[in-house]
Amino acid sequence: MKFGDRFSEYLHGEDEQFLEKCSHLEYKRLKKVLKKCRYGYLHDGMGSDFEAGLYSSQTTENEDVICGETAKGISNSCDSFSTCSSETCAVCDRIFFYELTKEVSAIVGCFSSRARRLLHLHLASGFQRYLWRVKHFFADDHEVMIREGRHLVSYVAMNAIAIRKILKKYDKVHRSVNGRNFKTKLQAKHIELLKSPWLIELIAFQINTRDSEHEHISEIFPECSCDFTASDPVITCTLPDSVKLEFSLTCPICLDIVFDPVALGCGHIFCKNCACTGASIPTIEGIKAANPRSRCPICRQMGVYADSVHLPELGLLVKKRCRGYWKERLHTERAERVKQAKEHWDLQSRFVLGYL
User: At 237, is the secondary structure helix, strand, or coil?
Assistant: First the structure.
């Protein structure tokens, strides 16, 4: 079965109710659009002089808005376009990638918000947890949550595969490398689906729930695993289309298993204390207090601290699987934070008393 048919089957299959409120990649429409050349549309008299002038001029601040409005009219008339030549068409590139970026951003936003809500509820207690149970008619909340998590992982996996295939098809049709380069741009904008820290959290969530007393839940999503015995501890997950994800659990700074882990906007995982050290800020001030120009210690991207995500599910997984290491590290981290707090308040006291 071709992927386009399989993707349609997924959209209208058992996950259809889950997908009602979620954005998804318009795979077949984009596949049809990428085979047509907007250049022919603009120069055959079908487009306005304004549109033709737009693509012959330099980039403007309002380009994205104009591209969006132009793309709508062009997509509706795509059947009349001539096919693209073997050379790259700047007009086709600009509109196609604008539409694709917009769809990917919507998918990332939907996935992140729903994953954040689910994981918050999993670790919540009291009234919030009670409301969740009422909403689901007092069903087994662990099973409901694990099924929701499975839906989210399948959702991000199928859309990521669709994006990969549409970009590969784009390069094949246009004989270019723009599709391959576009993946790098997605990473730079922090909207690469398979690099999302919420995906790592969901994988850890699946393992934590499977390790609980609800053993029958392991049958719902058995493809996730972790290995803390290897020289480089990893967490893995097998997705549809034989896509295997593997995330290292070794902090690149202290070279130990991540403790109180955080993921920066670029997707790299660190211990919270190590990430703060990399940004030259005290741990007690929090990672969000980093200078906006602070760079990731690994990829050197700027602005990644503002988009950082705390990973409590991954921290819980480390606590369960490495109890001895976790207790030793907790004692060390507490002592360090008490020392930092004392130094911080001493400095504040001296400032207030006018000693500086």
Answer: strand
Between strands 243-248 and 224-227, the pairing is unpaired
| Nearest to 246, CA basis, from 227, 231, 262 | 227
* Residue 38 to residue 31: CA distance in whole angstroms: 14
Q: Rounded to an integer, what is the distance from CA 347 to the centroid of its chain?
A: 39
Quote the tokens at residue 187. 């990473």
- Per DSSP bridges, beta strands 261-263 and 269-271 are antiparallel
Nearest-5° angle of CA 27, CA 32, CA 34? 95
Range 262-269 average pLDDT: 90
Model pLDDT for residues 198-208, shown as the tens digit of each residue: 999 999 988 88
Which whole-number Å values give the CA distances from 244 to 24, 169, 194, 196, 206, in the listed order? 21, 22, 10, 15, 16
CA atoms within 13 A on the CB side of 92: 31
Residue pair 238/256 in contact by the 8 Å Cβ criterion: no
Structure confidence at residue 348 (pLDDT): 75
* Sole residue written with tokens 């990644």: 304
* Cα–Cα dist 185/177, whole Å: 13
Q: What percent of the chain has pLDDT over 70?
A: 73
Rounded Cα–Cα distance for residues 276 and 226 (Å)? 26
